[in-house]
Design goal:
Structural class: alpha/beta
CATH architecture: Alpha-Beta Barrel
Number of domains: 1
CATH superfamily: Glycosidases
Number of strands: 11
Largest sheet: 8 strands, parallel, barrel
Strand content: 15-25%
Order of helices and strands: HEEEHEHEHEHEEEHEHEHH
CATH class: Alpha Beta
Length: 342
């Protein structure tokens, strides 16, 4: 991810899931050696199930010249909001999160209240780890333990529904798998767990990112690969496709769809506006055409998949702030289209 108003009203029907209790905090404390005070999270805000088709957007905890907005101001088109970003600490593998004063929150509690309000609307709010400048090394058993413990503690403290892995400086699939398995074992099946690898990271099942996805696919929510800041890539048919086209989106998604991930675990990640990324922006109509190609077999370009994937999860954008910068032009088109997928 780069570190650099209409709304779409919707009604969400979600399954009821167990409330995260103090037991999560206790487990997190035991793993990370932390002290967690009971009651810091709002027990009335249970994590919500992600809908069959979902729109994901990243929210900036910084001011980069797009739009500064509080969580409560994010378009209601989004089903998953990834708070960007958690930061590394002096302890290898451990992460922390602190609000940037530039966002304008009067207190941490106001931010937590915004998370709770979004959750009450059926939105999952998760904590993203990484970004273009984020370096969190999980490369041995101790750092895996520290990552899991600190992540669980932050989930409990703020009420986050889960974790997004957006590490762009390389990952170790073995130990990050260990960390995510610990998080899942404690948080349970209501954990919302997403990933945002770069295109190169998902070209082959031999890459560490793809291995992580396959290792954790029993509880992985969705992989929203970043189809931007990328050169041309090989699709699942062995042909090379240039970024910025329907074929680039569909032929690369096909690699994941045909190599072990369920359609519900695959999403298309694109910039919300030209200023959101160095390259790879496509008009919202290109995104909707790619979604139709993969789910319905219509709207395809040169590449036509051998089968359709009606359960495809949906789409992601970097970011809700860049979307707001362009008057929510991206989510107002792609959001309703994701809702209407078969």
């Amino acid at each position: 991810m780069d570190s650099t108003s209409s709304t779409h009203a919707r009604v969400r029907f979600r399954d009821t899931v167990p409330v995260r209790t103090v037991a999560v905090a206790a487990a997190a404390a035991a793993v990370a050696g932390l002290t967690v005070v009971a009651g810091t999270a709002d027990a009335d805000n249970a994590p919500t199930a992600v809908p069959r088709h979902a729109l994901t957007g990243y929210w900036h905890n910084f001011d980069n010249g797009s739009v500064v907005q509080k969580l409560g101001e994010v378009s209601d088109a989004y089903d998953i909001i990834a708070v960007s970003f958690a930061e590394s600490t002096a302890t290898p593998g451990a992460i922390d999160f602190a609000l940037d004063p530039a966002i304008g929150y009067a207190s941490e509690q106001e931010f937590k209240d915004d998370i709770a309000a979004k959750q009450a609307e059926g939105v999952s709010v998760i904590l993203s780890v990484g970004g273009a400048n984020g370096t969190v090394a999980v490369n041995d058993a101790a750092s895996a333990e520290a990552f899991a413990g600190s992540a669980l503690a932050l989930m409990d403290e703020f009420g986050f529904d889960g974790i997004d892995i957006d590490l762009e400086a390389g990952i170790n699939a073995t130990y990050l798998t260990q960390a995510m398995e610990t998080i899942h074992a404690t948080a349970g099946d209501d954990l919302v767990y997403t990933m945002a690898p770069q295109t190169l990271d998902m070209q082959s099942t031999s890459t560490e990112y793809f291995q992580l996805a396959l290792n954790t696919r029993d509880f992985l929510t969705v992989v929203n690969m970043q189809y931007y800041n990328s050169g041309s890539m090989v699709g699942c048919d062995g042909q090379v496709y240039a970024a910025g086209s329907v074929d680039f989106l569909t032929a690369l998604a096909c690699i994941q769809l045909e190599n072990g991930l369920a359609p519900s675990q695959v999403g298309i990640g694109v910039p919300a506006s030209p200023g959101a990324a160095g390259s790879g922006y496509v008009e919202p109509a290109v995104v909707t055409a790619a979604l139709d190609c993969l789910t319905r077999g219509t709207g395809c370009g040169q590449f036509v998949p051998d089968q359709t994937y009606p359960d495809l999860r949906g789409a992601m954008t970097w970011s809700v702030n860049w979307d707001a910068h362009s008057g929510n032009a991206w989510s107002s088109v792609v959001g309703p289209h994701v809702d209407a997928l078969p």
